[in-house]
Amino acid sequence: MTSMAKFITFEGMDGAGKSTHLAWFADMLRQRGQDVIVTREPGGTPLGEQLREILLNQPMCIGTEAMLMFAARLEHIEQIIRPALGSGKWVISDRFSDASFAYQGGGRGMDWQKLEQLEQWVHPDLQPDLTLFFDVPVEIARQRLANNISLDRFEQEQTDFFERVRAGYHQRVKANPQRYAVIDAARSLEQVKQQLEAIIATL
Length: 203
Ligand code: TYD
Prior knowledge:
Layout: E1 7-12, H1 18-31, E2 36-40, H2 46-57, H3 62-86, E3 90-94, H4 97-107, H5 112-122, E4 130-135, H6 138-145, H7 159-175, E5 180-184, H8 189-202
Parallel strand pairs: 1-3, 1-4, 2-3, 4-5
Helix pairs in contact: 1-8, 2-3, 3-5, 4-5, 4-7
Bound molecules: thymidine-5'-diphosphate.
Thymidine-5'-diphosphate is lined by residues 14, 19, 41-42, 69, 94-95, 99-100, 103-104, 154-155.
């Protein structure tokens, strides 16, 4: 298959089910002959994974949290995302900048414009070709997380935090609807897969 390499991101609040579907989605693309790498944020590089460990466990002020997210992202873009796309590989990332707007902007209430400045600084000329946003009511996402034994610093947040995260995602989708496929993640795994298959057919 000779199509241009694509950069695809998966987004949604904790418990939306995006990680489960991401692995399956990547396999489907590989079966169609694409060379696909799967990566994640925060993380994706050795330094990024160290920053992830800190970000998920260590309390810090909001600005620090946002800047560390974008620092890990810059490393990720330069070391992994751009080289892979440049060599014709498709890149699927479990989260990217939309998560910073949703969590640090929506959830934590950080100034949206400051986040836009960080985004402009770190990737002025790069955006995902497609973002799959797994949208789910907060109560359902919380129920799905209820069985997890260890919850990180974000997953431990309360319902109102996640309502703001969801609203943050909606704000991003509204500003740029053509980049997103909104998945109704409250539906069954099988129904979601059907929607993903329809999306793959369009790629
Ligand atoms: P997550 O993908 O949920 O990891 P896991 O499935 O292993 O729990 O990501 C970790 C957390 O990081 C998640 O709660 C959201 C948060 N996060 C931000 O707050 N801002 C960001 O920019 C990114 C990329 C993630």
